[in-house]
Amino acid sequence: MDVRSLASTRHLKGKEARALVKEVIEKYPSSEQVLKSAKQFEELLVEDKSILIVDGRPLVLRIGDAFLPSLKFEEIVDMLPQIVVDMGAVAHVVNGSHIMRPGITEIRGVFSKGDLVVILDEKFGKTIALGRAEADSEVVKSVTKGRVISNLHYVGDVFWESFAALGSR
């Protein structure tokens, strides 16, 4: 898919940029240093979603009224609880599949149902997806089957492809 043909970019200034920054910081306080010191804000519209580009970095995804950190926003992603999946699960996760309990090899950190978690591959420890927990970490540890994490953003999705298109602007 040629994402560039589906996307358009607009610059955000003044009140609109400040309001967006405030809203993101309220949701993700660890983003404050990056966002408050930023000089340029753009919004890349992709289909019915958008990506907030801050000083050239694709940092925040907007889906409806919800904001999610992009996989490129390490300042937030690195602070989230982590789920490590076996290599057999990786191909499924990067194709948009949700995370099933049998594919999980390790749970790092504590999370509650509804929290964001980062999905890492077992072999290289690379971030491959961002998901929303469907149960508390203690419950996830105790179950042996079923879907436990909803996949929200993954390497290769429309957002990820847009990041590649940004590099060729």
Explain this structure to me?
- The protein has 169 residues and is an alpha+beta fold.
- The longest helix is centred in the N-terminal third of the chain and has 14 residues.
- β9 and β10 form a beta hairpin.
- It has a six-stranded mixed sheet with strand order 7-11-10-9-6-8. It has a five-stranded antiparallel sheet with strand order 1-2-3-4-5.
- The N terminus is likely disordered.
- The protein has six helices and eleven strands.
- The protein folds into two domains: 70 residues, Nuclear Transport Factor 2, Chain: A, CATH 3.10.450.120; 79 residues, Roll (Archaeosine Trna-guanine Transglycosylase, Chain: A, domain 4), CATH 2.30.130.
- Helices cover 27% and strands 36% of the residues.
